[in-house]
Amino acid sequence: MTRVRIRFTKDGKVRFTSHRDIARILERVARRAELPLAYSQGFSPRPRLHFGLALPTGCASAGEYADIDLDEPVDLATLPDVLTVHLPPGMEVTAAVEVDPHAPSLQEAVTSCTWRISLPEVAPGDGVAAVQRAMASAALPVTRQRKGNVVTDDIRGGIIELVALSASAGGTEIVTELATRPRGVRPGDLIDALDPSWEPTVIRREHQWIATGDARHEPLASRTDATPHAEVRAS
Amino acid sequence: MTSLWPRLEPLLAKVEKPARYIGLEDGALQPRPDPAKVAWLLLYPDTYEIGLPNQGLQILYEILNERDDALAERSYAPWADLEALLRSRGIPLFSVDTHRAAGEFDVLGFNLSAELTYTNLLNCVDLAGVPVRARERGPEHPLVLAGGHCTYNPEPLADFLDLVVLGDGEEVVGEITEVVRDWKVSGRTPGSRRGVLRELAGITGVYVPSLYEARYDGGRLVAVEPTAPEAPALVEKRTLADLADWPYPKRQLVPLTEVVHDRLNVEVFRGCTRGCRFCQAGMITRPVRERPAEQVVQMVRDGLKRTGYDEVALTSLSTADFSGIERVVADTVNDAAGGGRVSVSLPSLRVDAFTVGIAAQIQKARRTGLTFAPEAGSWRLRQVINKLIREEDLYGAVDSAFSQGWRRMKLYFLTGLPTETDEDTLGIARLARESVAIGKRHTQGASVTVSVGGFVPKPFTPFQWFGQNPPEELRRKIDLLRDELRRDRGVKLKWHDPKATLVEGIMSRGDRRLGPVIEDVWRAGGVFQEWSELFSHDLWMEAMARNGLSPDDYAHRHRTEDEVLPWDHLSAGLHKDFLWQDWRDALDEHGLADCRWTPCYDCGACTGYGIEHIVASARPPAGGSQGTGQDLATGGAVPVALLTRSAVQP
Hints:
The complex is a heterodimer of chains A (235) and B (650).
Chain A (H helix, E strand, L loop, with lengths): L1 E9 L8 H14 L16 E3 L8 E11 L8 H6 L6 E9 L6 H4 L2 E8 L4 H13 L4 E6 L2 E6 L4 E8 L5 E8 L7 H8 L8 E10 L2 E3 L18
Parallel strand pairs in A: 3-10
Antiparallel strand pairs in A: 1-3, 1-4, 2-3, 5-9, 5-10, 6-7, 8-9, 10-11
Chain B lengths: L4 H8 L25 E7 L3 H4 L3 H12 L3 E7 L3 H10 L17 E5 L6 H10 L15 E5 L15 E3 L6 H14 L6 H10 L4 E2 L4 E6 L2 E7 L8 E2 L27 E4 L1 E2 L9 H5 L4 E2 L2 H15 L3 E5 L9 H10 L8 E3 L7 H10 L7 E6 L3 H6 L6 H13 L4 E8 L6 H19 L6 E8 L16 H14 L6 E5 L2 H11 L6 H9 L13 H10 L4 H6 L13 E2 L4 H12 L57 H4 L2
């Protein structure tokens, strides 16, 4: 058995599909590409695909990941193109690599994500001021629904990095690195804490990170990605 | 003609299931607007998840887009959250393919499969920026058209539809396109709308309600008669002679988000002559036209490869009756390309062990649910409805299924059938209980779900004269069953809301006087009425009362032989005297054999159109009493061909 990790993008109209939708799309695409999929045992065998942290519906991403179990190895150099051909517009496989099936799962491994949030209606001064206020405060309580209950969480500890930039097309862009544990902070939570009246047009996951001591690396660097953190290969 | 996408995009972040509105399905097209082409918007008046898989719309989508003089896009009813946003920002209904405004198309073509979607049709027309009443539309507005099974009685919608298509749509959409193209090229001048409708009325299969006048005498309808020379006194349905000429959809749409029936669908035959008397589909789609087995195999193979699905449904009204069933199943399941992972589903199973054998063979990959529809609780009542399943057929099927690894199954029944007694109703409980007992011999966890629907008599069936049971009576029968099954662990009872059954019944056999009722309910916000959580019985009853109409008169009253029915000016090919005779036979508890394998009894469907059944095998299928050569007195002399467990294992 071989486990292949792919990195892919999700952008444009297709970003309105859900995490579950993406799982089913990739399963069909793998069959159309005639990959030698490994199946689960039992009464209802399913192809073994493993997904990373769910991307909220409506968010774009430059770095999504999935692990695919195969009965035999495939040509990794051509795999991204072989899969992309069958994907809907807005999705592209940007890298593929073989990983150790015993390595921690994507869910377990990723520790934080970098997000870019477009707020064309927010004046850059207001954006900067809100960010400064947030970074200066000791606690940032956010009220949210969880399993039918209303709970209040302090998300301050989960904000690793937060900057407001003046967008070239006008308005504000927020770039932030948010922790995924112990309780993950979602970009929507952050906006609620900064100013609930803001309406982001696009929220994009730029990176997912695996922290190891003081260093961090991506689960798999994109072939086209030039970020300095991206040279480290998957475990 | 510009895309509304930039205005829609910010709204989609605020709504539930936004993937409903993005299009991008594999197989979808983005046709470029062209003044020389007739632009069709094909609509399903329910959510995307329900509407996307509709094979009728997908077939017409392909056929129209293949033409030089037409293009087609699709749209579905937006859910309330998006509708509110669209209305508040003045954004019209849009196509999911290129996100163009619905009002920019030349034809809005609706598929009507259920009466409770009628208010959604009005809502979609209104959201398109088109007047809901046909007579208020001008040359600048699209033509509003409907096809699908409900159009065999389109009278309740007569005020809102410009034209209606009866029967198979594959050929007639081309003929309509040619007339509409000329109208478009001529510039759709003021006053030209009635002219184009008159011309369209001359096409066989097309019904233009505004060219007919309904006359009443007191409370009774006495006639619906044409008022223009082009409009025929009797509108005949369209029927394809040979399904082999129409291997569609060739590129079935593969949605990006979850929908019902999310699998490859290949239609193996159209029409059914089993003759179940409650079944409108079986009556109006005659004769039987089978697709050649080789073509089915090819469509399955190509479709699986192209879509990446691992499940294919062989669709028809009774797939186990398909002459090529064993071969098609064997070829599909054993096709190396599928890697032994392809499962096949048969959406309408016959009730016999033979069928279960096929089901076991084809669900090697994955066991999905198994559903049988005995429809009635006693042999007597099953003779009345001509669903000739003996008890031992059902038990044989159930035993065969449990022995082959299934642990639960569903049984479908109707209640409120003609002549039904409490004994018949309680027979449902007996069948369910015995089925569980049979199951327990094989597995402790055996369970059976019984689903009971209230019977709604439909036009062009022998039961079209029958007064349906009032909601209170249906409720009483359901309660009777519930009490009876209270102690039966292993039997789960589900039922449909009897009040929704009433509204369905009013619409199903209603006349033009119901137009204002539908409009009132829509204006009061009654949309998505087929969704039980949104259905409002009160809205309908208030609207009926406001318009001076009696639910009893429409739904609960038995009709007489000489009564003019609202659909008498339309024809599904069936002779009215055949249907009346079949109604009398039903009341005499007299069954009628399937004419595929027994002599013709002249229902009219073949002879009237000069076409015939296309059936590859003249030999009836193996099976219980539902095979043919059956002895109707005892319910079948054909031995049950039981497939043993070893026979179905690889």
